[in-house]
Amino acid sequence: LPACSYLPGIRSSSINEVLPPFIAGNLQLAFKAFGKKMKGYFTNDAVVVATESRTSSPVRIPRDSETMQHPQIKNLYPCGEGAGYAGGIVSAAMDGERIANKIAVVFSK
What we know:
By secondary structure, the chain is mainly α. Helices cover 37% and strands 0% of the residues.
């Protein structure tokens, strides 16, 4: 695999291993179509980091509105879509920034 800035790193696997057939098949067709329109993007060196879904978390991990920490687990800062505090990438980024700012205040003391 080529070098990639994604943390925690990447590993090679078939898209069929992580997605249902109807999604994997449609993505494979879309990648080929995109590669015809944007020359150089659909190559053996291309890296697709997966998976991200458009669904919101069915759960909400509790957090204190003052400390932003879980009320029972010290230093656990639930945030973003998976914790139930966002519904998309922009709101997840905003929530992550809010939590990062709170953590910075805590650790600057």
